[in-house]
Fold this protein.
Amino acid sequence: MQVEFERGKPLKQEDLLLPADVYRTMRLRLSHHKDPHLFVPIRSIQYLAVIDNNEIVFVDGRRPRFIELAWQQFKPNAREDLRSPVPYTCVYYDPQGFETMQRLQNDFFQAVELLGSRETKPFSQRTVLPFNAKPKEAR
């Protein structure tokens, strides 16, 4: 299945910081996913985040084909240690994006966490316990 989104002209872009735990969790979820894109529903604000290796785009549920804003140009190597926030650029394509951005980092993190809690272990990490046909005798 192929899903296409539209972008308008960029209205504004700003450099921001994404908390390290949000970045780490997001990258971990993407790495466990078999497809190059990870779709994360953000139910609390009725948005959809689409994550790939280069950016995260956010789409309003009322206009499901139009990208409202995007987080791009993540620079994890620019930080001093793994607990430091990750610099990135936020690009706004719609005026509504300025208001949405006020809640987005927190709500996005919660949605990614929820997605991870529903994720099963990858097949390679599963274990099979032996079945003992004979019960052990009590001593």
About this structure: The radius of gyration is 20 Å.
